[in-house]
Amino acid sequence: MELLVDIALLSMLVATAVSLILVRGLVASIMLTSIYGLLSASFFVTMDAVDVAFTEAAVGAGVSPLLLLMTVALVGRVEQQPRKRHIAFPLLLVTVTGVLLIVGTLDMPPFGSADAPALQHVAPRYLQQSGEEIGIPNVVTSVLASYRAYDTLGEVLVIFTAGIAVILVLMLPGRRGSVPDDAGRQRPRNVVVNVVSKILIPFMLLFALYVQFHGEYGPGGGFQAGVIFASGIILYGLLYGLPSVCRVIPPPVVEALAALGVLLYALTGVLALLDGRPFLDYSVLATDPVTAQYLGITAIELGVGVTVASVIITIFYAFAAHLSEAQR
Amino acid sequence: MVLHWLSEACLLAGSFLLLTGALGFLRFPDIYARIHACGVTETLATSLILVALLLKSEAALPQVKLLFILLFLMFSGPTASHALAKAAWQGGVRPRATRDAGERPASPAGR
Amino acid sequence: MDIASYFNYWIVIVLMMLGFYIVIARGNLVKKLIGLNIFQTSVFILYISAGKVSDGAAPILTEGVSVYSNPLPHVLILTAIVVGIATTAVGLALVARIHEAYGTVEESQILEQDNAC
Question: Is residue C61 assigned to a domain?
């Protein structure tokens, strides 16, 4: 039964990707991308990767198509027909590479086998000992925020850097920090959507906080919570315009918060250094090791959540400001 | 035992409605009819499936979560259909019936 | 040989090649980024498939469950998804800038303008 669901979802993914190749026009492509994101999120649920599915549902089906749509609003939705001679060579290259890779998969361990090499190295240790060492049920959070906190710090820094890069690339000369006002422009209003969203947005933000602080016990954590929080704010911005959302959360505040999240993460690590222990060793935070782990994970997840939410909101602000500038 | 069969029946009905919605989406002539096919069946079908899961689950916590999902779907499904139809209307898409009759389409409201 | 034991990997490769094809065969820069997204997601699917154990449970410790799927790929991919959207945003910002400078996002037209200089 599980295999049947697996095959159905994967076939739908392939169908979506094929129609992405066949379809002309960027808006239709973006809708297909959104469907692709939702399908892969469902697939991750069948693969027991609930945390990943959570993230993919928020990013792949929500934020990513939104950013693509904003870019298309800037650059136009028409896609030109490729010339005929451009098709033959890519097709050949893709076929040859694909066949070679498929031959390569025959050496891989069968799907789902419990004695595959990938499952032998560190995973058993995480699964057997994290219950006593870290004391929280969600092993993914234990690995993310404690065993592999170095890696996660790196990832958060990459996200932060990407946020800075977007601001720098899209910076409008001479208009840094000022919010474009489009009060004179008539925005298309939709009463039903506005009212329903106004009811739902507080719950979205509340849900983001639940995901943030419940990440130790169930699927969730800083990355998911950050994306969900940001999508709540972005929804508000889409409905009521950039000036209103900038009054609620001014861009300088968001940018400062993005830096603050990284700082919170890194300082938690430095705290251990000051006591003469290795970087990111949480045992400095409390005498009881399990309590210390709990405190450290909470602090780090908070830093991750704040940074991810702020960076995504910042990216939205940058694109939206550019868009309202271009429409002028 | 009664609950079990009730939930199975709900699941079957929900799946059947989803199937008809998908069929309507593929076969109906214009965007408004397609929204009608999906939007109407989708809300009822997902509600039925959620009710079936509610009847199946034994613990209290999943039941509360399912109730919340049901509540949010009641909000979001119709709103999405409405937004889609309104966007199509404002974008200048007219129902096929008026197009075929060769009538001059009425000017969209609120423009 | 059981087809089911390799089906996931083959689908991953098909998806990867479809994404790769969009990247190299299409001239529109936004479409190229969409293709890159497909490619990226196929890698996510590969990792998550490799971490799945038959009859395993989601890696959240529960009483009475002994077989869990591998949590390590989940951690890697979870962060990779969010990093992916951040880097995609950088790419899209660059595309927006290229459109300002050249007035087009079609690769062939950009090259023509470059060669004309």
Answer: no
Distance between CA atoms of residues A136 and A297, nearest Å: 10
CA distance A232 to A241: 14
Evaluate whether residue C60 is within a structural domain: no
Question: Which candidate in C82, C92, C102 is best for mutational testing of the A interface (most A CBs within 10 A)?
Answer: C82
Which residue in chain A is spatially nearest to C65 when comparing CA positions? Answer: A127
Interface test with A, best of C72, C107, C111 (most A CBs within 10 A): C72
User: Domain with A33 in it: what CATH number?
Assistant: 1.20.120.1200
In angstroms, what CA-CA distances link A92 with A104, C12, C13, C20, C21?
A: 18, 19, 15, 12, 10
Interface check for A193 against chain C (CB to CB < 8 A): the answer is no
* β-strand partners of C60: A138
Number of domain units in chain C: 1
Q: Which domain holds residue C47?
A: 4-52+69-116
**Is A94 part of the contact surface with chain C (CB cutoff 8 Å)?**
yes
- C-alpha A41/C-alpha A113 separation (Å) is 22
Q: Which residues of C, range 40-69, sit inside 8 Å of A by Cβ?
A: 41, 44-45, 48-54, 56-62, 67-69
Task: Kindly give the confidence (pLDDT) of every residue in chain C, 117 residues in length, as a single tens digit, with 9 standing for 90 and above.
Answer: 577 778 889 999 999 999 999 999 888 999 999 999 999 999 999 999 988 888 888 888 888 888 888 899 999 999 999 999 999 999 999 999 999 889 888 888 888 898 987
Using DSSP's 3-state secondary structure scheme, residue C28 falls into strand
In this predicted complex, what is the ipTM? 0.93
Chain A residues close to C106, C-beta within 8 Å: 80
Task: For residue C53, give the nearest of A114, A169, A227 by CB distance.
Answer: A114
Number of domains in chain A: 2
Q: Among A282, A284, A269, which residue's Cα sits nearest to residue A157?
A: A269
Range of the domain at A69: 1-111
Residues of chain A neighbouring B110 (CB-CB closer than 8 A): 189
Is residue C57 a part of any domain in this protein?
no
Of the candidates C7, C18, C58, which has its C-beta nearest A50's C-beta?
A: C58
Write down the pLDDT at residue C92: 95
